[in-house]
Write a sequence for this structure.
């Protein structure tokens, strides 16, 4: 009987001992819970094909869907930081998803050239797409103000890995479940850079991108776009000068709230991009 009573009291004893040793129950900080509803945007068909040349005067973009601003990314790291004016415009046709970034900026910080560089360490825009929408594939494209690109594919090979409250993949599961394929190429990707002008003054920079369907949609068994829904996010990184010489501070902005600095780990937090066929159909023959 004494043994049974001791076993019955064991949880209380352990709980008391844990409190005495200074252990406490782990509470989830509400500031780390990414429970904002995911945004949705409907993207019209490109009746007029964008020239993808970074030209402010390309009228094709006047018919595009618009994301008028990108707020600072989710998380404690972004507190006290203020976003820069940024607009993202979107169009599509069977062959391409067209993306335009309009980035207001009076201090364009860019020096790198080439391909597959760490452009995120300077001013850059980024595009993330999960074509199937099951949070197991994340395609990343980085573009700097010169139009240079980095492209890669991230695969999550263990579908049972749970998400953290901020909708990223948990440590240590990331090290075993995440496969980064830097050798992947978005064949057929077209980009161009331009400048936002206010009279004769440079007021920022423009990025145009035509993202091809074929390398993007392999996993869903398609090679062309059609009316469909993609999971995606659109980001901007701006490195702002500080009072310290040769030191800059990152302001990371996004469309769909994702953990600050971790968009590559956050396909479950992407928004919804709906490709809509907005072309007017010819009326059918009357009988």
């Amino acid at each position: 009987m004494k043994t049974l009573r001791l076993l019955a009291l064991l949880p209380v004893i352990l709980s008391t001992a844990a409190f005495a040793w200074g252990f406490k129950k782990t509470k989830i900080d509400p500031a780390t819970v990414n429970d904002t509803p995911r945004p949705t945007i409907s993207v019209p068909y490109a009746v007029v094909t964008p020239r993808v040349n970074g030209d402010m005067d390309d009228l094709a973009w006047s018919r595009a869907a618009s994301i008028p601003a990108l707020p600072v990314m989710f998380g404690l790291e972004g507190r006290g930081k203020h976003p820069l004016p940024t607009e993202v415009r979107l169009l599509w046709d069977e062959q391409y998803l067209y993306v335009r970034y309009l980035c207001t900026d009076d201090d364009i910080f860019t020096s790198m050239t080439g391909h597959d560089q760490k452009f995120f360490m300077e001013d850059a825009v980024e595009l993330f797409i999960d074509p199937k929408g099951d949070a197991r594939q994340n395609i990343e494209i980085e573009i700097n103000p010169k139009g240079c690109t980095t492209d890669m594919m991230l695969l999550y090979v263990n579908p049972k890995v749970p998400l953290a409250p901020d909708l990223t993949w948990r440590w240590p599961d990331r090290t075993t479940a995440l496969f980064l394929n830097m050798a992947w190429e978005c064949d057929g990707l077209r980009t161009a850079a331009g400048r936002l002008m206010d009279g004769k003054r440079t007021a920022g920079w423009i990025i145009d991108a035509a993202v091809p369907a074929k390398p993007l949609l392999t996993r869903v068994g398609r090679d062309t776009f059609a009316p469909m829904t993609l999971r995606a996010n659109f980001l901007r990184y701006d490195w702002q000068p500080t009072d310290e010489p040769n030191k800059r501070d990152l302001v990371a902005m996004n469309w769909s709230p994702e953990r600050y600095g971790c968009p590559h780990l956050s396909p479950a937090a992407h928004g919804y991009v709906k490709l809509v066929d907005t072309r007017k159909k010819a009326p059918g023959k009357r009988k």
The radius of gyration is 23 Å. The domain at 44-70+85-125+141-230 is CATH 2.60.40 (Immunoglobulin-like).
